[in-house]
Model the fold of this input.
Amino acid sequence: MVVGLLEMDLYLPATSSLKEKRGILRSLKDRIRSKFNVSVAETDNNDLWQRAQLGIVVVTNSSGNANSILSKVIKLVEKEKRIQLLDYRLQFM
Done:
């Protein structure tokens, strides 16, 4: 069993309220969950309008498969026009 963890630091330049930020993140998290069957949570910067940190976890049978899934998540986030991916970290346990 392999657990893959992806931590993403995000910038939301056009948001002007926490309500707007939460709506954008909710939509993104729902798409990630449904498309890749992973767990997603906002893990930091909860009270900042334009910053967010997401944690994404996948459990699978190989590190290669976990890396493939999490790489696809990164590509999906990079394509999102309302969000800029500032940094990310991958871990496999």
